[in-house]
Amino acid sequence: MFWYAARRIAASVPVLLLVTLISFSMMHLVPGDPAAAIAGSGATNAEIEAIRLQLGLDKPFLVQLATWFGGLLQGDLGRSILLNRPVWQAIVERLPITLPLALFALALTLLIGIPAGVIAALRANTWVDQAVTGLAMLGVSVPSFWLALMLIVLFGVHLEWLPTGGFVPFSEDPAAWARSMVLPSISLALLQIGLLARITRGTMLEVLRQDYVRTARAKGLPGWMVIGKHALKNVMVPVVTVIGISFGLLLSGSIVIETVYGMPGIGRLIANAIFGRDYPVIQGGLLLTGTILVLLNLVVDLLYAVIDPRVRYGR
Predict the structure, then answer these.
(1) Given CA atoms 151, 156, 161, 162 in this order, what sign does their dihedral have?
(2) Going from the N-terminus, what domains does the chain have, and what CATH number goes with each?
């Protein structure tokens, strides 16, 4: 297990370096002059040149890249142009908003998606299976921003059960904080619930046809033991992959959801940076998202070895 984990960690290092390189290079691949875009249409040449000097855009690309890498080694992601503060500070301040939102959405995804997929597989080709599959397809097909608006209209405007937007810090009012998280979490989770339910259903159907499941049933074991002890463990290997991907998608999907609900999280920070051409914040956000996805893939690989010991022995 130790050597398997060491190999996976070593393989993640060049990926992280590549993510860092792409995060920095992407802004330089965008057509046009970044300094002119930041300064605006009415800026003078002197103002544009001042911004270019401030961002170091007057230096060669490799020099800029080396400077940025040097800053990263010291924990410096640059300084936000719009906020006039360090990028890492702006991200850290908003992490307590985005991270709980993604975790709540992931909890909803797991609590609903896995049981729904298992039930659909156990009731294959029945109305239960068709209902679960139909709802899963609907969840995958509906755009998240449209769903968020419909939830606001229904639960916020007509029923007045939940707030239509905004965010209340947990330290000020825990109950109001929880209420402000409900609709965004549901809007963020429904897409992943449908995806997880479909993957779980398909995998469970394959597992239920295996010989060891039929043998367990022939021995007279209760149905719950056959499903929980024998079938579900083997279903979890591909499902873990979907869970890891889903959490990364939930973090990246918060850009749309936080904008719709007016939540001051990392997603809205990146959205405002895109509209305001705040390149240091965009680069920092891309680097954060890419790093999280790489680390999630690493965690998924390590979980493989725990769930299925054959993985770490080179199967």
Answers:
(1) positive
(2) 2-73 (no CATH), 88-313 (1.10.3720.10)
Q: Name residues whose C-beta falls within 8 Å of residue 83's C-beta, 6 or more positions apart in sequence.
A: 90, 278, 281
Q: What global pTM score does this model have?
A: 0.78
CA–CA separation, 54 vs 38, rounded Å?
12
Provide the residue-wise pLDDT of the chain in tens; the chain has 315 residues. Answer: 666 667 767 777 777 777 777 777 766 666 666 677 667 677 777 877 787 787 777 777 788 778 877 877 787 777 787 777 888 888 888 888 888 888 888 888 888 888 888 888 888 888 888 888 888 787 777 777 888 888 888 888 888 888 888 888 888 888 888 888 888 888 888 878 888 888 888 888 887 777 777 776 777 767 666 776 667 777 777 777 777 777 777 777 778 888 888 888 888 888 888 777 777 888 888 788 778 877 877 777 777 667 666 555 554
Q: How far is it, in rounded angstroms, from Cα 297 to Cα 56?
A: 34
